[in-house]
Amino acid sequence: MEWKQIPLGLLQTNCYVLYNQQKDCIIIDPGSEGDKLITYLAKEELQPKAILLTHAHFDHIGAVEVIRKAFKIPVYVHEKEASWLTDPSLNGSQLFLNGRSIIASPADKLLKVEGKLTIDEFTFEIFETPGHSPGSVSFYVKDINTVFAGDTLFQGSIGRTDLPGGSHEQLLNSIEEKLLILPAETKVLPGHGPTTTIEKEINLNPFLNGY
């Protein structure tokens, strides 16, 4: 199993395409530029099976409708942010995009509990990691020692907590209790910027001193 990082949109939000030898794939956080993403998938002859959202801020959901309609695949989001897809005042587009709203149809599947999620040949461990937003989740793939962390943990930084529903204390708890307990060599694939590892963030991240 392999993955491709594709920064999309004005905020260069990292979309990830996780794929296997059979050319099936899962799309994580298609934030914008749906046509660019479709072109990549066609070039690589990949067949999407689902869209997973680490959370539902506008810069992570901007291409959801384009991709869902193109491939007729389900969208997964945490139940605490189910209404964010349809509400630009909640997903932040109304505030940050100068009146331009990003609206998607409701999710097909709501994530309600932590645990295993299996989609065809792909298996994820779902961790609830709120703090950046109430319904933030991280998707851990044990087979490749990788966690898709959304805007929870970055290289040398952590997610912002000054948006509606954010909590600095909750975010630090999420990182400590759900992410830092993973094996040191685990790759962290964040919502923005370069990839990192759990070991590097424990040793070098200034926001995590003492962990």
Automatic annotation (TrEMBL):
Signal peptide: none annotated. Pfam families: Lactamase_B. GO terms for molecular function: hydrolase activity; metal ion binding. CDD domains: metallo-hydrolase-like_MBL-fold. Residues 12-192 form the Metallo-beta-lactamase domain. The keyword Nucleotide-binding does not apply. Its cofactor is Zn(2+). Keywords: Hydrolase, Metal-binding, Zinc. The keyword Hydrolase applies. This is Metallo-beta-lactamase domain-containing protein.
